[in-house]
Every structure is written in C-alpha cells, then in structure tokens.
Amino acid sequence: MGKTHLNMKVNGKEVDVLTEPRHLLIHVLREELNITGPHVGCESSHCGACTIDMNGMSVKSCSVFAAQAEGAEITTIEGIGSPDGLHVLQEMFKEHHGLQCGYCTPGMITRAYRLLQENDNPTEEEVRFGMSGNLCRCTGYQNIVKAIMAAADKMNEVKEAAQ
Ligand code: FES
Ligand code: FES
C-alpha cells in the first residue's frame, strides 16, 4: 500500500508524517516521530503500555491505524511533563514508589492524567477501575493507586488556593 500524509497535532506541535495508512499509531509515534515515551507491550490492546491521550480520551495506540489518527490531537507522556518540569502525577509516582522497572509508567501516567480530568476527586475504587486497562508486572498496584490519589489531592489543593 502506498504512503500518504498524516497530519496530527502531537504534544502541541503540528506534524505531517509520510506513512502507510495501515501502520499502527504506536509505530508512527515511536519510529517515525521519535516519540518513544509510549511503549510497545502486548500490541493487542491488553497491557496499556502504549496509552496516549487522543482527542480527549485515553487510547491504546497499538489499536489505532495511522489513517484513523488523521487530524487528531495527541498528548503523550512527553507532553505531560518534562525532566525539568515534572507533572504532579510524575512527582507523586516518584514520591510514593509507583514504579519499579518503569515500563508501564508512561502509559499509567498518561491514563491517570485523563482519569483525573474525568474525575478530579476519585475514590480508591474509582482509581482502580479507571486504571484497570493498564497492567504492571512489578508493583502490585498499591503504590500506583496511592500516587494517583495523592496527585488528585495536590491538584485540588492548588485549585482551591487559586479560588
Ligand atoms: S502495547 Fe498497546 S495495549 Fe499493550
Ligand atoms: S513498573 Fe515494571 S511493569 Fe510496571
């Protein structure tokens, strides 16, 4: 199949990639745009390592064809925080030991980022349910949940202080 132009906005920047429409979005991001935060795990929509934010929803980028992303607005972990300016979720994952090997972490944080926009004061049960599409082989989830709850509290404190 021939290549075609794919136009998207990724982490706030307009991009135009020449790619095959059948390519998976995770491969376009990693191999053609060098955005390697989203990881390849199962490539079958199970693990969540490839989670990105697409048009305001958490999406597993291994289940999206390039052609389906035309015109999309995408945020990856690179657009959520940076080494010099960590997002509060990243700070809380660090503080509460929400990661070990780190393979699942970009997907976890990207999903949690959307979860806290959908519900800024989630119960533990809601966090566990909301994160249930993201698997971690290391942590046993306890500290991931703690980190997300702590991030929600911090974000709410900032919001209250600004009122
Ligand atoms: S690599 Fe996409 S869900 Fe596992
Ligand atoms: S920290 Fe290793 S898979 Fe989650």
What does this molecule look like?
By secondary structure, this protein is α+β, with helices and mostly antiparallel strands. Helix 3 crosses helix 6 (142-162). It is globular. The chain is built from 6 helices and 5 strands; from the N terminus they run E-E-H-E-E-E-H-H-H-H-H. Helices cover 38% and strands 15% of the residues. The mean pLDDT is 97. One FE2/S2 (inorganic) cluster binds at residues 40-43, 45-50, 60, 62. One FE2/S2 (inorganic) cluster is lined by residues 40-43, 45-50, 60, 62.
Summarize the structure in short.
This protein is α+β, with helices and mostly antiparallel strands and 163 residues long. The termini are far apart.
